[in-house]
């Protein structure tokens, strides 16, 4: 049972990056436009990286699940309000799009950092 759980957690750690790359190539082949394919892949893979960070944080620090979800929701809401206010309280869809792309950058970076941190922590625990 522990081996199956390890395989699933390993897949959750690497799968979003692989799926993101596959999305870019698939959408580029379908549309023929590189920039549009990249932006569409970014938009489609935000939830993958969100849940990847969620799984990594719970696995590394054994946090209660609702803490991460609560603070992520609060953060998304505050960033949306910030972008909406910067747009002078007009064009909520544009503010939502900016917030969505910013959240991709945050979750992509956090996923990569947590992957490196978790691997390093595992190696150190195995050495000692």
TrEMBL record:
InterPro entries, alphabetized: DUF3397
Pfam families the UniProt entry points to: DUF3397
Keyword vocabulary terms for this entry: Membrane, Transmembrane, Transmembrane helix
Keyword Nuclease part of the UniProt annotation: no
Keyword Transmembrane included in the entry's annotation: yes
Regions crossing the membrane: 6-25, 37-55, 67-87, 99-124
Record protein name field: DUF3397 family protein
